[in-house]
Amino acid sequence: MQRIGIDVGGTNTDAVLVDQDKVVGAVKTPTTRDVTGGVRKALEDLIALVGPEAKNASSVTVGTTHFLNAVVERRRLNKVAAVRISLPASASLPPFVDWPEDVAAIANGGHYMVRGGHEYDGREIVPLDEEELARVGREIREAGITSVGISAVFSPLNAEFEERAREIIEIECPGVRITCSHSLGRLGLLERENATLLNAALLDLAEEATSAFQEALEQLGITAPLYIALNDGTVTNAEMTRKFPVYCFASGATNSMRGAAFLSKIENAIVCDVGGTTTDIGSLVNGFPREANSTVTVGGVRTLFRMPDLISIGIGGGTRVHDDPLDVGPDSVGFRLTEDARVFGGAQMTLTDAAVSKGLMEAGDASKIADLEAGYVDDILAIVHERIASNVDRIKTEATEVPLIAVGGGAPLIPTEIPGISRVHHVENYAVANAVGAAIAQISGEADQVFQGLSRDEALAEALKIAEEKAISSGAAADTLKTIEMEDLPIAYLPGHAIRARVRVIGDIAALSES
């Protein structure tokens, strides 16, 4: 039952070996420009620390910002053909209409509007124009586009037209990779379509990254199956990651929250994760991150799919300190911390320097910052403490005091007393909580659909069945599944007793359960 967890952050790459309920070994190495190279180095250091038995781990889980960074930094996105089934509706707002111009210039491989779609009550707007879809498929093939995103009006209610469009385009354009919006998003056409197009734009990178991770394991003689951490604190197999990379956008923050729950044995709390570049603040509910219920903007693109409810601020160990006037961040030296920070012989004043000067942490050579005045350092930390405290208050949803779990390599920067917090908990192995969360992660399945003509119990039962099937197809052991979220919402304006049912289940990785 030994499991390896790896988390690739903007500054550091962490790796841990977890055996049952304890951390056997943990390492932290600088993230490299070649992200997979950093993963390989972290694994090598972990094996050197705990011994060759690490190679016999039951599973390896990687949490990475690889896909999110590609969108934010506008790089390594492939061209996508957007097919929307909606005419005569929604013609005034074509696909990519609300994307930032620089992202659209990279990813927009053309858009095609086709007659079809469904009304909010499940009725057809008009029949699907299959001849037009065949023509679209041929045009996409001639343009050399290899990735397609298909969206249709109210497809989460009825996915028939999206699936038929997939069949037609695959016939006309052999080898094309297709993402259908009903597989990703919820009700809300533009946001669901945007998530679909982002996913389709990341498919080349997803294939490259997962293959590189697997190659790194093979080079080190690690035969355990590879899993990738997801936005909700669970994992999926490498094959699913190749199909749905957008589900990995916020895996770093959720790994930290799951790791915080594991290390502290507290399932309901605020988690403050201070990394090298940012501080992520979220809320644990029953051991899992609370999900955002509103739209989420990724690299300037509005989306609507499963993401944690987080506040991220530019506070981290590598955050730059500016003078005249005195200010902190939000920019960071990132993975160059061990070169640029003053305690490491560099010229840049960072929060790591302030923390070392105050005696909050040990790093580098403290004699290199002996000239720092105590009042100057206190003023820097006062800014940090105020920003953390104000954002902790923003993430809270209740007036009563709640516990806070401090994790991340920069956790010593968190104040010991915060208004509205009953106690700040510092845990063992706090610096690698993100990798711990990756190591212990389970597999999830979710259903979020509108059902008509069913009773409340029947709708929830059907949603539960769908969620369980998704979890099992992602690699969960069927006999370990348990329901962690179940809710229903009657939709008054839909005829036929319409109910929106949402069910989420989790289960152990099948390979671990069998061992």
From TrEMBL:
InterPro entries the UniProt entry points to: ATPase_NBD, Hydant_A_N, Hydantoinase_A, Oxoprolinase-like
Residue ranges of every copy of the Hydantoinase/oxoprolinase N-terminal domain listed in the record: 3-171
Domain annotation Hydantoinase A/oxoprolinase: ranges: 192-359
SUPFAM superfamilies hit by this protein: Actin-like ATPase domain
Pfam families noted in UniProt: Hydant_A_N (PF05378), Hydantoinase_A (PF01968)
Domain of life according to the entry: Bacteria
Name the record gives this protein: Hydantoinase/oxoprolinase family protein
Source species of the chain: Sneathiella sedimenti
Organism lineage: Bacteria, Pseudomonadati, Pseudomonadota, Alphaproteobacteria, Sneathiellales
